[in-house]
Amino acid sequence: MIVWKPFAAALCALALAGCASFPTTAARVDDAKPAAPELTIQSWTTAEGAKVLFVPSDALPMLDVRLVMNAGGARDGDQPGLASMTSALLGEGAEGLSVDDIARGFEDRGASFSTGSYQDMGVISLRTLSRPEWRDDAVNLLARVIGAPSFPQDALDRVRTRALQGLKMDRQVPGPQVEKAFQKVVFGDHPYGHADDGTLESLPGITRDDVSRFYQRYYAAGNAVIALVGDVTREQAEAIAARLSEALPEGGPAAPLPRAERLTERTVEHIDFPSNQTHILIGNQATWRGNPDHVALYVGNYILGGGGFASLLTQQVREEHGYVYGVSSYFQPMAGGGPFRLQLQTANDNADQALALTMGILRDFIADGPTQAQLDNAKANILGRRALETADNSDIIGQLGAIGFYDLPLDYLQRFNEQVEAVTAADIRNAFQRALDADKLAIVSIGPRAPDVPQGAQDETQGQNQ
Questions:
Q1: Which of 120, 33, 110, 29 has its CA nearest to residue 73?
Q2: What is the pLDDT of residue 463?
Q3: Hey, which bits of 62-185 come out as E strands?
């Protein structure tokens, strides 16, 4: 459930002081570098075992709270969709509280409450005013919601029906179908290999008892990270974290996920679908959270396909040849692995050429890496953008949740910027060669016919020359 209420007032400030220090020559502009995000992250563990990360911020009279549990779709077991259903039912009822009581309770306090479920994690979020009379009531209401959720049968039936309708709608459009097929091809029987939102076969069998058992096990305090950002003191933050930790079920951390294995040969799959476009996904298991090559892969992928119109794939496949409507790539590091995904959508008549050209660009990038000019441009863009990623509390709370959940160092954001500045073209080339083999990728497509898959470097070179 999501409850939103706009706040009565907005605060803004314009600061023009320090203009004399602005760079006024080419040399000073060249020397000016975006500052690394400087967050003083405080951390401790509650009596129940929850990890807490706290950043005090008095920029706004607000408090953001995020609970991150090791309770994502990877924990579904043989019931795909169980984690998603559990998350969706939080806030639909609790001991002594109806769904309307919960909704009005947060709304009347000017607070917003939301939940979310992803492959690795389940997330519970609260944003409230930091004035004690508002903040404490909102935190206490959150504690009641997470302390004794009732998972009403009528809410379960409603959420299930909505989820089943969504799955049926997914069969009418190509995007979700090719996404799920790609996920299954790349991860197979690994916990990441099934659809997080469940299946038409699995959802009808999920019961209240299943949801309750999942909640008791995976939403336990010892399996949780509590992130706090806002206008509160350390003493107040400790009290809030303790209140929420005490409310959660007792229990320890979930067992680590097994590391996903890479495909060892090229795997091609096509779904016949009557559409005007062909969607193609290319990739493999390639990384994980904590991979020492993470920064090199991140910067390299920004150059290859993650930098929007500045990326090689967009410049060549879309701008120069006009083969695609859109093309992009990214690495998605998670606890038990993480795919490299390259995705494109093209008119059916262009599918063969678009795939050959894309594969050729990818093969060349794995072999050669970027030029120095491409790397310099990417570094400037990445560092400039990173400065905005901790611009307000909502940005910071997301970073805190990830740092705590994946057990990253507290100075991770500062280290990341330093590593971006230090990465070389050779680092990127070597990292890509360790992560990817152009001849051992999944190629999954959907459209009226399967595109011709290049057999190797020669076919891909021909695609580049067309």
A1: 120
A2: 59
A3: 62-69, 93-94, 97-98, 112-117, 122-129
The radius of gyration computed from the CA coordinates of the chain, to the nearest angstrom, equals 24
**Residue length of the chain:** 466
What tokens appear for 25 in the block? 């020559």
Angle among Cα 149, 153, 155 to the nearest 5 degrees reads: 75
Q: Which residues pair with 281 in a beta bridge?
A: 343, 444
Q: What is the largest CA-CA distance in the chain?
A: 70
Q: Cβ neighbours of residue 385 under 8 Å, at least 6 residues apart?
A: none
Encoded tokens for 236: 């107040």
Question: Could you tell me the domains of the chain?
Answer: 36-247 (3.30.830.10), 267-465 (3.30.830.10)
Q: How far is residue 286's CA from residue 284's CA, in Å, rounded to a whole number?
A: 6
Distance, in Å, from the CA atom of 73 to the CA atom of 61, rounded to the nearest integer, reads 35
User: Looking at the predicted structure, is the pLDDT value of residue 22 above 60?
Assistant: no
CB 299 within 8 A of CB 417: no
Helix, strand, or coil (residue 327): strand
pTM as predicted = 0.88
What single string gives the DSSP state of each residue in 207-228? -HHHHHHHHHHHT-GGGEEEEE
Amino acid (one-letter) located at 422: A
What tokens appear for 234 in the block? 């350390």
Closest alpha carbon to 455 in 439, 437, 435, 433: 439
Determine the pLDDT at residue 250. Answer: 97
Distance between CA atoms of residues 66 and 226, nearest Å: 6
